[in-house]
Amino acid sequence: MSAPRPAVTARRAPARRGRTLGELEHHGIEELKAVGTKRAAAFRSIGVSSVLDVVMTYPYRHENRAERLAIAEVVEGQPAAVLGEIERVSTRRLPGRRAMVEAVVGDGSGSLTCTFFNQPWRARTLSVGQHVVLFGKVTRYRHQLQMANPRLDVVDPDGEVPAGRIVPIYSESEKANITTALVEAAVGEALDRAGAFADPLPEPWRRRLHLIERGAAFEQMHRPSAMGEVGPARRRLAFDELFRLQTALVMRKRAAAAASRGIAHLIDPHDPEHRLVDRFIARLPFALTGAQRRVVAEVAADLSGALPMHRLVQGDVGAGKTVVALAALLYGVQGGHQGALMAPTEVLAEQHYLGALDLLAGLEVAAPDRLGGRRAVRCELLTSRTPAGERARLIAALAGGEIDLIVGTHALITEHVRFSSLGVVVIDEQHRFGVDQRAALRDKGAEGAAAGHDPDLLVMTATPIPRTAAMTVYGDLDYSVLDELPAGRAPVTTRWLRNPEAEAEAFEAVRGEVAAGHQAFVVCPLVRPGGSEEDGEEDPEAPGARSAEEESARLAEGPLSGCRIGLLHGQLPAREKARVMEAMRQGEIDVLVATTVVEVGVDVPLATVMVIEDADRFGIAQLHQLRGRVGRASLASRCYLLADEEQATTEAVARLEALERTTDGFELAEIDLDLRGEGTVLGARQKGRNDLKLASLRRDRDLVAQAREVAEALVAADPTLEATQPLLADELRLFIGEEEAEYLFRS
Ligand code: ADP
Ligand code: MG
Questions:
Q1: What class, spelled out in words, does domain 272-482 have in CATH?
Q2: d(Cα 331, Cα 359) in Å, to the nearest integer?
C-alpha cells in the first residue's frame, strides 16, 4: 500500500481533476484553429479574448433541426424542420417598394409557403424542383401554412440528406464579421481540446441540488444531443454564476467582521436604572407586534456581540420600523453611547424626529452625576436647513456627548459633525442612499470615546425588495423581516378607476371623508404643467400628465370646493414645505395635493383617502409606498388609482391590477421583479454583476437561495476556502477582481 498522499498535492495539481476555468483563461483565443490570428482581433473587439471567454459565450437559443416533420405534422405556432421540394417561386411588390419572395414547398403530405421579406436575391437562387430543408416557426395565413424568413438549405436530391441536429444560435456581430457558425466552430474546438472540466462544486452538494457536472453542462449547453439537455445545462451554469457571487458576498461579510472592532453594547444591565430600552418599550402606547419583538431581539443579540452589527431590516409599509430603529439606538444610549438616525430627505428626517420625540417623551436615562440620578433622553434634529447658530450649538453638544440621539439627513455626515461616542447608526430608506454615504457615517465612529470601534449599523428599506434580490444586493448584511402589521389596521381598499369619467367617484369619496373629519392626499406626477417630474427627468412621452399646481387649483374650484387644500412639492422652499406638512399633521389642511415628496415616511393618522392621478406612470414600489400614507391608524381607508386604461401600457395595467389585488408589499416586490426584471431592482450596488450572464434573479430564485446555502456552509467550514476548496478559491480570484480578492482572501 502506498503512503497517503499529502493533501497539498491535490491542491497544487488541479489539472488532474480536469481543466479549471483559470487555465482556460490563460489560453488566448488565437490558439484556436477555428479563429487564428486574423479573426482573433475580431473576437477581441467583442470582448472575447481567451478560451474561457469562448466557452462562456452562450447560445441565446437552440434550433431543433434534428427532428424533421412531414408538413402534415407541423404544429402552428411551433418551430419545425421539414424536407420538401420547391413547387413555385414568385415575387410580390409590397407598399413602400419592398419586395417579398414567396416559395411554395411540398412534400407529398402537404404544402407550406415560405415568405422572404427584403431578400430579392432569393428569387434568383430558388427554383422549382429544388430539394430544400426548411427550419422556422410555422404560422397560418388564410388556411395556408407559412414560414416567414425560414432558414433554408438546398440539398442534393440524389445525395444523402444531411442529418438534422440541434443548432446553437449565438449572437452575431456584423461589424466584427462574427457569425453564429464561427462562434459555434470556435466553441466546439475549445471544448474538444479542453477535455474534462474540473468541478469546484463538491460532489455531495451537486447531488443534493440535482445539478449536472460542470463539464457536462458546457457540453450540453453548446452541443446538446436533445433539446431536453439544454435546461439542466443552463441551470448548472447559472448556478455557478450565483454561487461565485454568493461566496464572494459571504466572504465579504466575514472579512468585514474580522477587520472591525465593535462595541459590545450593554443589553441586559443588572441595574434596572440602566434598562432604558425596557422602559422605552413599556411606555409605548401599544404593544410590540411579534415581528417587532423578534427583530428587536435579533438586533440586541448583534449589539451585545464584539463584532459590529451589519443588519438589514425589511419591513412592509407601516410595519413599524421606527420603533425597532429607536430600540436599537437606545441600546447604544443605555451604555453611554450616542445614536444617529439618517433619512434620505428632509421631510422624512423631520417626520422621524417628530415621531421620535413623541415616542421618547418623558423617557429618562440614568445619570449618576445628576440630582435624582436621571436626566431626559436628548434627541435633536440636524439637517441642511438648521440655522447656523443652532447648528453650531448642536455640533458642539454632539461632540461633548450631551446629545443622545441625532436625527438628520446627509448633513449628518458632513465635515463638521463629530460625535463623542457614536454607538449605533440607523439608515432609513436605504435605496436612496449611496454606499459611500453609509461608509462615511460609519467612519464617524472612529472618533471620541469609542475611538477605534466601528458603530453598529442597521439599514432599513422603505418597501420590501424580493428576497433573492436582497440576498444579492445586501448579501453582505444580516437580514431581518418585519412581516406583521400592528393589530387593528384596517387594510386599505384599492380601486383602479379605469376611465377618466370615473374619477368623480374618487373625489366624491374625498369629500365624504373630509366631511367625517378625515384627511386625504391627491398625488400628481408633475410639479407644474408640462414641467419636470418630481424625481425624474422631464418626460416628453407624456405631456398630458397632471401637475400638482394645476390640480390643486382645479380641485379647489370644482370637485373639492369648500375643502381646505394644501400644496406640497419638492420645489417649494424648505420652510414652506415644513409649514405645509405641519399644517397637514395638525389637521388644518383637509386635502394635500402633492407630488411624490409624500412618498416615504409621511405619517398622518387621520388621512383615509389616497388618490393617485396618472397612476400608470408610477412604479409598483412607489404606488405601494404612496398607498402606505393612508390606513396608518384603525380607520378604514381607501386608495384610488386614476389611469385611463386605453392609454396604459400592458405593463402598467399589470402593475395597477397587482395593486388592486394585494396590499402585501413582499408579494408586490416579487411581482415587480417579474415585470421589470432585475436590473432596475438591483440598482448600482453591484460587485461581480457582470458575471451574471445566464442567471436571472427572477427566473432563478431557487438557485439564488441554494447558492447562498452552499456558500455559507463552505465558508463556515473554511473561511478562506484555501484548505478545503482550492478550486473555488482560485475561481473566485479569477472572477471578482484583484482588489476585492485581496480583501476577501486576507486571512
Ligand atoms: P414604517 O415601517 O412604515 O416606517 P412606522 O414605523 O412609521 O412604519 O409606523 C407606522 C405607524 O404605526 C406609526 O404611527 C407607529 O407609531 C405605529 N406603530 C408602530 N408599531 C406599532 C404597534 N406594535 N402597534 C400599533 N401601532 C404601531
Ligand atoms: Mg418608516
A1: alpha beta
A2: 15
**Closest-CA residue to 489 (of 687, 683, 634):** 634
- Could you give the residue range(s) of every CATH 2.40.50.140 domain in the chain? 67-164
User: CA 163 → CA 1, 66, 129, 184, 394, distances in Å?
Assistant: 52, 7, 21, 17, 82
183 CA to middle of ligand 2, Å? 52
Q: Which residues form the pocket of ligand 1, taking CB atoms under 6 Å from any ligand atom?
A: 286, 288-289, 292, 315, 317-323, 486, 603, 632
Nearest ligand for residue 318 CA: 1
Contact 334, 276 (CB under 8 A): yes
Q: Please write the tens of the pLDDT for every residue from 426-480.
A: 988 655 555 556 566 656 665 655 666 788 989 888 778 887 777 777 777 888 9
Residue 288 CA: nearest ligand 1 atom is: 23
Which residue's CA is minimally distant from atom 4 of ligand 1? 321
The closest-lying atom of ligand 1 relative to the alpha carbon of residue 355 is 16
Q: Give the rounded distance of the alpha carbon of 703 from its chain centre.
A: 16
* 492-680: CATH topology: Rossmann fold (3.40.50)
> Which of 643, 710, 612, 653 lies closest to 251 in space, CA to CA?
710
Distance 322 CA to ligand 1 centre (A): 7
| Residue 545: Cβ within 10 Å count | 18
The CATH class of 67-164 is mainly beta
Q: At what angle do helices 650-661 and 620-627 cross, to 10 degrees?
A: 30
| Cα 113 versus chain centre, distance | 46
Give dist(CA 252, CA 273) in Å, integer.
39
CA of 552 to the centre of ligand 2 (A): 27
Q: Where in the chain is the domain with CATH 3.40.50.300?
A: 272-482, 492-680
| DSSP string for 131-142 | EEEEEEEEEEET
pTM greater than the 0.85 cutoff: no
Q: Which residues contact 63 (CB under 8 A, 6 or more apart)?
A: 79, 81, 135, 151, 166, 167, 169
Please state, as a whole number, how many other Cβ atoms lie within 10 Å of the Cβ of residue 181. 13
pLDDT digits (tens, 9 = 90+) for 618-668: 989 889 989 988 987 788 999 999 999 998 999 999 999 999 999 888 899
For the beta carbon of residue 156, count every other beta carbon within 10 angstroms.
9
Distance of CA 646 to the CA centre of its chain: 30
Which of 323, 352, 625 to mutate for ligand 1's pocket (most ligand atoms within 8 Å of CB)?
323
| Among protein residues, the one whose CA lies closest to atom 1 of ligand 1 | 318
**Closest ligand relative to 625 C-alpha:** 1
Which is the closest atom of ligand 1 to the Cα of 605? Answer: 14
**One-letter identity of residue 717:** A
Please give the Cα distance from 398 to 423 (Å, whole number).
13
